[in-house]
Amino acid sequence: MRVFLDNAATTSMSEEVIQAMLPIMREDYGNPSSIHACGRKVRAKIEECRKKVANNIGASIGEIFFTSGGTESNNMALKCAVRDLAVKRIISDPIEHHCVLHSLESLQREGIQIDLVRVDERGRVDYDHLEELLESSDAKTLVSLMHANNEIGTKQDLNRISEICQAHNALFHSDTVQTMGHFPISVEETKISFLSGSAHKFHGPKGVGFVYISSDNLLKPFIDGGSQERNMRGGTENVIGIVGLSKAFELAIDNMNERQAYIEDLRAYLKAQLTEKFEDIQFNGDHDGDYLYTVLSVSFPPSPKAGLLLLSLDIAGISASGGSACSSGAEKGSHVLAAINAGIDRKTIRFSFSHYNTKEDVDFLIEKLKALTPMKEMVEA
Ligand code: PLP
User: Fold this and answer.
1) 169-181 pLDDT tens trace
2) Is 149 touching ligand 1 by the criterion CB < 6 Å?
3) Strand partners, 347
4) What is the location of CATH 3.90.1150.10 in the chain?
5) Fold of 15-254
6) Does 99 participate in catalysis according to the annotation?
7) DSSP structure string for 181-234
């Protein structure tokens, strides 16, 4: 038996998504830039997908650009904002995904001022500090704050950040890779300059995503080449991927409430089982406040087997994800756990769910954990 509890890393593709992609692989192989019928048919398909994606987040068609995934979308937003919109300063936080943090490091080397807003021990953004930072300079600023953290699941308040940005005339980018398709997001309701999405986080294919760029922001090409993606991104489109993304996104939006309720139950069940059966279990992030329901970041106490917990789970048939606060420098620790001061003597494992997981998966995990982490002593009634 293999139990997959690593859905924040990636998700399996839905059968409906695979079915939607097959005709593009088999029959509709025309190049969307060709002017003959084979090309035109595929071009129309891409534009249909763009329309669906745009409708699902309240955007206009011209504001959606297909990319190779979340990493490219975030790179595009940050780097083009600096190059084309005269942004001189970016305010972000220390728990962003590496595709944002490393982009910021590279922009800093080019002279852009980077300021990091404080986060608390649950990874929640300090909104007062954000305002202070915005008030401290007149430089044209972009605020880049992720919607939900991929390691600890803490979710930020997009509306509040958007309002703060508007009050200070700052642009706002949010890495929404973990929340797109899992929470309702509407650019009609929340004013935002850039958003990112990645198909493989919502049961679509890998290597395809999209970026929303609000029409107020006119950008030059990110990849020079042909005039694909309204000149923003040259190169023949990943049609198979785009069709898969759009189908997976549609399914995620249409079934969002049921999937959420189902996953919330599984997560609560795992939380309850862990707390009831094992010694000194803690949870990282805003686990009972504003959280990403697909993620449960569990902090296990020090014990003889804690160091090899992730490997032992893997051998036992469970795929999950590691993450530890760095102490020695020998092992490259998680920058997120370090930023929230998670205990360096403890062992963090991130379990992340999809609607394909079952209660039996959780029972299987609990059974395997019995040999790996200290259990509570059962008091006889
Ligand atoms: N941002 C966040 C928060 C993520 O979790 C990920 C994926 O792990 C990415 C960005 C990168 O997305 P992709 O794998 O599509 O490049």
Assistant:
1) 999 999 999 999 9
2) no
3) 300
4) 3-11+255-369
5) Aspartate Aminotransferase; domain 2 (3.40.640)
6) no
7) TTB---TTTS--SEEEEEGGGTTS-SS-EEEEE-TT-----SB-SSSTGGGTB-
Distance CA 269, CA 363 (A): 9
Q: pLDDT per residue over 196-241, tens digit each?
A: 999 999 999 999 999 999 999 999 999 999 999 999 999 999 999 9
Q: Considering 38, 80, 99, 326, which one is annotated as catalytic?
A: 326
pLDDT for position 150: 97
The rounded Å distance from CA 70 to ligand 1 centre is 5
- 286, 289, 290, 294: CA torsion to nearest 10: 70
Q: Which two tokens stand for residue 43?
A: 């071009």
Banded pLDDT at 117 (limits 50, 70, 90): very high
Q: Is any ligand 1 atom within 6 A of the Cβ of residue 357?
A: no
> Ligand 1 in contact with 178 (CB < 6 A)?
yes
Nearest CA to ligand 1 atom 5: 150
Cα-to-centroid distance, 377 and ligand 1 (Å) = 41
Predicted confidence at residue 324, as pLDDT, reads 60
**Rounded to two decimals, what is the model's pTM?**
0.96
Q: Tell me how far apart the alpha carbons of residues 299 and 94 are, in angstroms, rounded to a whole number.
A: 20
Chain center to CA of 158: 14
* 133 CB within 6 A, ligand 1: no
Mutate-to-test residue for ligand 1 from 183, 198, 336, highest number of ligand atoms within 8 A of CB: 198
Is any atom of ligand 1 closer than 6 Å to the C-beta of 97? yes
Separation of 76 CA from ligand 1 center, angstroms? Answer: 14
pLDDT in tens, 304-325: 999 999 999 999 999 999 866 5
On the question of pLDDT at 352 being above 80, the answer is yes
Report whether pLDDT(379) > 70: no
205 pocket-lining for ligand 1 (C-beta < 6 Å): no
Architecture of the domain whose range is 3-11+255-369:
Alpha-Beta Complex (3.90)
Q: Which ranges in the chain are annotated with CATH 3.40.640.10?
A: 15-254
Sheet holding 347-352, edge to edge: 282-283, 295-300, 347-352
Query: Which pLDDT value is given to residue 268?
Result: 98
Name which residue sits closest to atom 14 of ligand 1, judged by CA: 70
Report how far ligand 1's centroid is from the alpha carbon of 276 (Å): 33
